[in-house]
Hints:
By secondary structure, the chain is an alpha/beta fold. It has helices spanning 30-34, 51-64, 96-118, 165-172, 189-203, 238-245, 261-272, 286-295, 302-312, 340-348, 351-360, 368-377, 383-389, 393-399; strands spanning 4-5, 69-73, 79-82, 85-88, 120-127, 131-140, 143-151, 177-182, 207-212, 225-230, 252-255, 276-281, 313-323, 329-337, 365-366, 417-420, 423-426. The protein has an 8-stranded mixed β-sheet with strand order 10-9-11-12-8-13-14-15, with helices on both faces. Strands 1-5-6-7-2-3-4 form a 7-stranded antiparallel β-sheet. It has a two-stranded antiparallel ribbon with strand order 16-17.
Amino acid sequence: xxxxxxxxxxxxxxxxxxxxxxxxxxxxxxxxxxxxxxxxxxxxxxxxxxxxxxxxxxxxxxxxxxxxxxxxxxxxxxxxxxxxxxxxxxxxxxxxxxxxxxxxxxxxxxxxxxxxxxxxxxxxxxxxxxxxxxxxxxxxxxxxxxxxxxxxxxxxxxxxxxxxxxxxxxxxxxxxxxxxxxxxxxxxxxxxxxxxxxxxxxxxxxxxxxxxxxxxxxxxxxxxxxxxxxxxxxxxxxxxxxxxxxxxxxxxxxxxxxxxxxxxxxxxxxxxxxxxxxxxxxxxxxxxxxxxxxxxxxxxxxxxxxxxxxxxxxxxxxxxxxxxxxxxxxxxxxxxxxxxxxxxxxxxxxxxxxxxxxxxxxxxxxxxxxxxxxxxxxxxxxxxxxxxxxxxxxxxxxxxxxxxxxxxxxxxxxxxxxxxxxxxxxxxxxxxxxxxxxxxxx
Length: 442
């Protein structure tokens, strides 16, 4: 196999069905690959595999089983995350010494120094024949550990993510404003943002500047100029990179994640000066997103920040990945595209009214429960799964009172239900449900 090189990874795992709780079969035990003294026999054997070959074997298993993540902890069982669930590989990860050697070869001196001092570091690699991977190396109980995420080399198509693509395309076409994609880690936020950038790339002439940690998907320029900057190597921080980006003739700025007041302040300034800014937050819905942004600032600045958000916030998409009945995962989402009434609610801090407006639906508005109802009625998601994922499970159960679970369903299932402007729209029941699904990524 080829050598290591730096990469700009982006996770796009495909769904794959694996029996629950069953380990994967492999051609060779990883104990055989590592050949630690305690595991080897006294019989003469072939030379031990190099650290690079050991990692390549794990990554090959990851690709073969279409896993999103590979988890390696010193002395423990190697494991994969497939369609959201953990599956174990045979054998054992080598001990702290050999695993640190693997990390040093893959990460390099600078990243290893950061790992040693801070206890965690992000990096990206590309391996010929296997693809691109994003790595987070960390310490647990003082010993080395890795989580490696598989990434794709092609930008996702906005129409294939089981999201409200028409509304997202309209947001991507805006010339100014703030757009947030929110959700927990692994909910597909990076996938959605990449799809929006790719939509611009195919349809408009713009200069897009991305600030990422690390750089994920390496875009193939079509109609856009896309400048990709990595925090740590190209700029010290998101906030500083964003301030400099305003002097780099941008039309669109993508911020990998808003982490502090300095970054949101710079993002607001960019939107106020006529730029479209896209970013992510680890929040679960639109109302919490506004609370998180306000929480970056002292209470005395709340009124001013609300006024700036009311003027500049274009939309918020919240998303969660749920196990699909058809295998893999499917997104549930909440969409809020701001309108005059919502802007007034933001200005006045009426959090409850914002949530009520989203639940009521309308152009550019869809609540989680409306989306979950569609997923259950279409037969894509189990009722229990939807209820567990809902912020308002009692209301969801009321709207689905004709479904009792198991075979006692009185609603017609199997139809493809999507959302257009927040309202369910039924398509031909013979259409294939699912399609491509969001990756379990940032």
